[in-house]
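Sample intake sheet
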Amino acid sequence: MISKNDIKEIKALGQKKFRDERGLFVVEGEKLVAEALNSGFEVVAHYRVEDIGEDAMARISQLTHPSPALAIVRQPAPVTPAIQPDELVLALDGIRDPGNLGTILRIADWFGIHQILASEDTVEVYNPKVVQATMGAIFRVKVSYVKLAEYLRCPVKTDVYGTFLDGDDIYQSPLTKGGIIVMGSEANGISPEVARSVTRRLYIPPFPAGAHTSESLNVAVATAITVSEFRRR
């Protein structure tokens, strides 16, 4: 069973303010709920449509078409990120689109990247649209929100890469096993403050070289290409 107060509390978690206050977030769908239950995250509550009924599930769901399963999960406590010299890490500068952030977590998960640094103006990782788009990667890839420009200005024993239109061809450039790869916002790219800390500027060229093509790549697509090239080496 589920009470009216439970329904009210779960619906409130659709807003960032209440997610922050309660330290909780919602996952929906058979796959995501199974991922949550098998992760190291604390599952506070777990609801199935056969137990609470379709009407109650529709009232607590944040999806257009409610799924058969929903869980309330506790957010892990934030910790100061520590990067190893040979570790490959993503840094996201002002990524605003929830779908892009969720997809980037899936990309990181696929390519064995376990840590993402995110600027404070990057969309919240517990946003319901982000959570859905991760397809479970949220339980394996850690996202730390930091003052990114300030963080990168601190001495780091690793290369800091970034993608720019005036960078060096990624397919012709030497790449290290570890490093921080900075990806910029959908609209503005990497901010000038963050760009100052980039030590290796990279460019994903169109094919054929010099061809008249689209103005830019979607940030999630660019992330996949960049990370794939690092791992290929």
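Comment: The chain has a mean pLDDT of 94. Residues 1 and 51 are 7 Å apart (CA to CA).
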